[in-house]
Amino acid sequence: MQRPGFTFLVCPDPEMIKNRVERLLGESGEVFTREVFQGDEEIPAAFWRALTAPSLFAEPKAVILRRADSLPEDFWPKLKGPLSGFAAHVWPMICLEKPFGKKGPTFPKALSTQPYYQVAEKRRWIWTSPGLTRRDMAPMLKDWVASKNLSFAPGVLDALAAVLPEDMAMAGRELEKIELLARSRSDAPPAADDKTPLPGRIEQADLSLLAYRPGMDAFAFLNAFAKRGAEAAIWREIFEQSLSPEDMIFKFLGLLRSDARQMWQIHMGEAEAVRLPPFVKSQKEAMARRLGAHGLTRLFDLAMEAELGIKSGSRNPDQAMELLAAELFSLFSR
């Protein structure tokens, strides 16, 4: 692989930045040492020496500047000299890690006017990602399971992709738990029947290890109240899937507030700030129109009332869930 003269990495997820750096270095075919500097601290003289001076034994090194968004405007012209030519033993990597705006990533004005930035644009030396999104989840899981030499039981990949947190570090911790459980079956006795989980295969039941249950999708739960005739099915779901212990319902209420917040943004004309797959977004737009400002405000109130009821001891998680459902029936019947 012919590597770039320098690279810009633009992503608000620190773990994804880290993974991308490792992938680029691994694909280069060379062994790089790493020198890492932080843009939210004063840039030391060692940073400029690392960019311009080869190592003692001329070993390839990656000079990585994290959180470069925090640097003052007068920093960017100083990079013109170090980035003006190709250094065989130095690979500069500049990381911009602020959240994306409505129209995508934003770059410091003093950076976007620099000639080296224009070269990076022309030669495609800029990698950008909005972070781990629901759309990216399934491809990421396919790569992950292949790299771990594991497999998914039918339907499990989609179920897992629907509930993993949209944060690479948090998702990684959840996947580590699932991997340990799947590998623990490798030493288990041979399967006695078809129902015995296979060694190295991730089963639906394994997802119970996650921070919240795959079956309790907060928006799908809300959406059920919008359908006439679904009352019996909703109550059956509530009674069959208890949200005890307490931390389970708190996670569910957090998801409910997150959905309400997205719908509030959509209702208030900030739909561009809500990053969702088109189908899901259209569903939330429809519900936001149906509920209006009053109904969306009521969603926040109901989530807070349920949480306070549990924390005060006046209700257990199941009672709080039943009361929440009753109030949602009332809200959607208006």
From TrEMBL:
Root EC class: transferase
GO BP: DNA-templated DNA replication
Chemical reaction(s) catalysed: DNA(n) + a 2'-deoxyribonucleoside 5'-triphosphate = DNA(n+1) + diphosphate
Annotated GO CC locations: DNA polymerase III complex
Keywords: DNA replication, DNA-directed DNA polymerase, Nucleotidyltransferase, Transferase
Gene3D superfamilies per UniProt: 1.20.272.10
InterPro entries, sorted: DNA_pol3_clamp-load_cplx_C, DNA_polIII_delta
Name this polypeptide is given: DNA-directed DNA polymerase
Organism encoding this protein: Desulfolutivibrio sulfodismutans
